[in-house]
Amino acid sequence: MKEELLFHEGKAKLQIIKGDITEQDTEAIVNAANKKLAPGGGVAGAIHRAAGPDLWEECKKLGGCETGQAKISGGYRLKARYVIHTVGPVYNNTPQNARDLESCYMNSLHLAKKKGIRSVAFPAISTGIFGYPLEEAADISLRTVINFIQDNNLPEIVRFVLFGEKDYKVFTKAFQKIISSKDF
Predict the structure, then answer these.
(1) pLDDT at 2
(2) What is the pTM of this model?
(3) How far, in Å, CA of 50 to CA of 132, rounded?
């Protein structure tokens, strides 16, 4: 795990690291879920495999999740106590895509705050099989989180966990651009 860029706002801290989201010691991790909250490929598959079959059993009872919304479950065999499930948009180059992606982060953060969760780890939502361009997703994701932590006291730690070197570099570059422009 490589910790790099940090942004502080009051007690809140934003981190960007390269690592495996299933190994995070945050109180919650975010699952880039499908609408059924079912095990699948990518992040969702990795989280379900690491958490074990009880996660899927609980997810079946949550009644699915719509794009941009968020639901919470237990973490089971994960280090994280909770999994926040959010469904990102399938990219089709419309303005609604950006609104839906922003909603994924906002609704996940509001749910974490409501539950009193102090630390949460996010993947790069919708950038895998859902096809969201990484640079655009990084900008939307980071701006949304920075704006949220400026106005809220929880969670205190928000961590972006990027699995590959390319994703990590794109997010760190986007972060540097946002911070240097002070346009957030």
Answers:
(1) 52
(2) 0.94
(3) 25
Q: What are the tens digits of pLDDT across the range 45-58? A: 999 999 999 999 99
Give the list of residues 6+ apart from residue 46 with CB closer than 8 angstroms, or none.
Answer: 20, 21, 22
- 120's CB contacts (< 8 A; 6+ apart) are 26, 27, 28, 29, 30, 84, 108, 109, 112, 155, 157, 158, 159
State the amino acid at position 160 in one-letter form. Answer: F
Give me 122's structure tokens: 């996010």
**What's the count of helices (H) and strands (E) in the chain, helices before strands?**
5, 7
Q: Is 92 within 8 Å of 109 (Cβ atoms)? A: no
Each residue of 67-93: pLDDT tens digit? 999 999 999 999 999 999 999 999 999
The whole domain housing 150 covers 2-181
Q: What is the CATH number of the domain that holds 13?
A: 3.40.220.10
